[in-house]
Amino acid sequence: MGSGCLKVTKYFLFLFNLLFLILGAVILGFGIWILADKTSFIAVLQMSSPSLKTGAYVLIGVGALTMLMGFLGCLGAVNEIRCLLGLYFTCLMVILITQVAAGLVIYFQKETLKEELSHIVGSLIKNYDPSNDDERNLQDAWDYVQTQIACCGWTGAKDWENNEILINQSMTAYPCSCSNSSKDFQVDSGFCNLDVAVNGTATYADWPVHEQGCMDGVERWLKDNLGVILGVCTGVAVIELLGMILSISLCKNIHSEDYTKVPKS
């Protein structure tokens, strides 16, 4: 490889690693957001499922590692340090293999994950109590989900018939966040009373609520955004492959190790 080509490869790899450094910061920020968010479906999951909390910490670790790799890649490319470039290539390959393995596990375990979500949300609905301040953040997050997706319960409004407070009230109240009535739009949490209850009792069929369950709403959102999700995943994989090709190409064409190029503190 000519010196001109080598120089172009070197600086192109530097720019690539700068992008990789930014990508690591985004992943790190996403992991922190999962742990800190209190007003979305993520909050419902992370407060109920230890596996999502673990996943958030993994994202933080991966983000930090990616930022470190981007820094090492920049350093190795600009200063032509073969050992750093080789280490960078190896780490990228490990990360790419890990991502593919994680994607396969999620794909083949999706039914198990769906069942776990069903149990989590079912328990939340059963024990939902607006007067319970200890679970306020979790309950507010679920109310937010039902309001934003325009859904009710996990599989449908019938799920709310298991709620202990509604059972005690003979189903003459319903969750306000499920309401499809304009008069309830200002109230997005707690329970609302039915205007007319037949013989002092009612069923979920009498409630002015959305018929769609949140499971269908979430699945529809995933299908609508599948192209974006696949595009992002494919883009990340292509960037990683490009980094591997550039780093190994530069590494092979640096003929002699010159440690005098390593910046001194």
Tell me what the structure shows:
Helix content is 65%, strand content 2%. The chain has 265 residues and is an all-alpha fold. The longest helix is centred in the first third of the chain and has 34 residues, at 3-36. It is elongated. Residues 256-262 have low confidence and may be disordered.
Query: Tally of extended strands?
Result: 2
Alpha-beta classification: mainly alpha
Radius of gyration: 26 Å
> Fraction of residues in helices?
55-70%
What is the 3D shape? elongated
Bin the strand percentage. Answer: under 5%
Give a short synopsis of this structure.
The chain is mostly helical and 265 residues long. The chain has 9 helices and 2 strands.
Keywords:
single chain; 265 residues; mainly alpha; two-stranded antiparallel ribbon; 9 helices; 2 strands
Structural topology:
Elements: H1 3-36, H2 41-48, H3 50-79, H4 82-108, H5 110-126, H6 136-149, H7 164-168, E1 173-175, E2 191-193, H8 214-224, H9 226-252
Antiparallel strand pairs: 1-2
